[in-house]
Amino acid sequence: MMNKNFKFIGTALGIFFCYFYYGILQETITRGKYANDEKFTFTLSLVFTQCVVNYLYSIIILQISPPAKNVSVGPQMKKSLYAICALTYILAMVTSNMSLQWVSYPTQVVAKSCKPIPVMVLGVLVGGRSYSLRKYLFVFSIVIGVGLFMYNPNKASKSSAPGGLGVGELLLIVSLAMDGLTGAVQERMRSGAAKLNSGLLMKYMNLYSVGYLLVAIIVTQEIFTFPAFISRHPSVLPNIILFCLTSALGQFFIYMMVTDFGPLPCSIVTTTRKFFTVLFSVFFFGNLLTELQWFGAAVVFLGLSLDAVYKG
Question: Each residue of 259-281: pLDDT tens digit?
Answer without folding.
Answer: 777 777 777 777 677 666 666 65
